[in-house]
């Protein structure tokens, strides 16, 4: 008896990547492309319409970012099988995606065969996390996560804002900003603001895109 092909949705805002993934999938007899989306909001809408077996999802999406789209789909469809395919490899990115319900995490440097193997694994109900991404999770051991306000402070720092400007943007006092900065440096294990921003960007604690 012939097995039904794996129905796949591709979500990426870069047309060349989306086209490349679509072409890769069309070459496989056991797969069928059912939807393509260029932003997170459209991905949620198309998931409702097509109910794909596996969704390939980038995280850096416009309108609604990939993490929010992932969470939205999983809230509505708890059994949704979503495979993240992204440039982001910070430990926080990987952790948040898995926590949100992603069944797999691949980096965009993955080869065609690796991507196809991951799709098949996720479709079978298995988890598939790229070794490089899995290794990044080790950095989380013993870490104290940033609070939302600390993360907002850190993002403002990354944009070059002074304590006074941060206080105005977040409607808090400068003394509170200084307290947040002290906590941020301690939690990230760094000595100054520049190191804090560099480490946070590398780990995916904040994003400027």
Automatic annotation (TrEMBL):
It comes from the Bacteria. One of its GO terms (biological process) is phosphorelay signal transduction system. Residues 7-123 form the Response regulatory domain. Residues 139-204 form the HTH luxR-type domain. The modification 4-aspartylphosphate is found at residue 58. GO terms for molecular function: DNA binding. Pfam families: GerE, Response_reg. Keywords: DNA-binding, Phosphoprotein. Signal peptide: none annotated. PANTHER family: TWO-COMPONENT RESPONSE REGULATOR. This is Two-component response regulator. The lineage of its organism: Bacteria, Pseudomonadati, Myxococcota, Myxococcia, Myxococcales.
């Amino acid at each position: 008896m012939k097995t039904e092909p794996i129905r796949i949705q591709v979500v990426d805002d870069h047309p060349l990547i989306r086209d490349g993934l679509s072409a890769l999938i069309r070459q496989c007899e056991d797969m069928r492309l059912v939807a393509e989306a260029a932003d997170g909001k459209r991905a949620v809408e198309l998931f409702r319409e097509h109910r794909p077996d596996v969704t390939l999802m980038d995280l850096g999406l416009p309108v609604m970012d990939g993490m929010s789209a992932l969470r939205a789909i999983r809230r509505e469809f708890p059994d949704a099988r979503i495979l993240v395919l992204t440039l982001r490899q910070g430990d926080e990115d990987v952790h948040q995606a898995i926590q949100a319900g992603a069944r797999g995490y691949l980096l965009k440097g993955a080869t065609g065969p690796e991507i196809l193997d991951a799709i098949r694994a996720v479709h079978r109900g298995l988890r598939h996390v790229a070794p490089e991404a899995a290794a990044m999770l080790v950095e989380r051991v013993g870490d104290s996560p940033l609070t939302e306000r600390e993360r907002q402070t850190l993002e403002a720092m990354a944009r070059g804002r002074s304590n006074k400007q941060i206080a105005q943007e977040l409607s808090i006092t400068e003394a509170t900003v200084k307290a947040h900065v002290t906590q941020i440096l301690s939690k990230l294990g760094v000595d100054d603001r520049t190191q804090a921003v560099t480490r946070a960007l590398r780990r995916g604690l904040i994003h400027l895109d």
